[in-house]
Amino acid sequence: MLNADQPFASAFLWLASFSFLLVYGLPLALVPLRWARWFQWRLPAELKSDEENQLPQLAEYFGRCTGALAITITLFAMRAASDPAAHPYVLEIIFIACLGMTLVHVYGALRQIQPWTENAEILLYAAMTGLAAGAWSTLP
Asked: In a 10 Å sphere around its CB, with 0-12 CB exposed, 13-18 middle and 19+ buried, how is residue 28 labelled?
């Protein structure tokens, strides 16, 4: 439903959020290599010897995207730290992000497709999920 007081901002947020969810969020979370093919990245089996640097470029691209999201969440957390009650959504975002990261790492551990250091991060993200939920629950 559109907000009658701010229809432009409300419409933008609905349209942008659903578009990014469908084009980036869900495909990157569920089928990242298929998403890469849709966006014209070439994968190892498709590469010729003169294109072998394409896979490291794809990995670097995914890393930069993840880093940009981490920086964004961190900056919002810093902004909210001085008055958490005025910005409760930041704790909600941190809770959801950490829960998602816990699930991503559990999935990787179950499939045995990640190094042990990533498996160890399951505990980190699970703890952060719990701490974020605890901090969120203390707000008015």
From this structure: middle
Q: pLDDT by residue (tens digit) across 100-138?
A: 999 999 999 999 999 999 999 999 999 999 999 999 999
Burial track 92-113 (b if 16+ CB lie within 10 A, e otherwise): ebbbebbbebbebbeebbeeee
DSSP state of 22: I
Q: Which residue has the tokens 């349209």?
A: 15
Q: pTM of whole model > 0.90?
A: no
Q: Report the alpha-carbon distance of residue 9 to residue 5 in Å, rounded.
A: 9
Under a CB-based contact definition with an 8 Å cutoff, are residues 92 and 136 in contact? yes
Phi, psi (degrees; rounded to nearest 5) at 3:
-80, 120
90: left (phi over 0), alpha (psi -120 to 50) or beta: alpha
Q: Model confidence over 4-62: pLDDT tens digits?
A: 999 999 999 899 999 999 999 999 999 998 988 898 887 777 766 666 666 778 888 99
DSSP code for 6: S
- H helix intervals, the chain: 7-20, 26-30, 32-38, 54-81, 88-111, 116-137
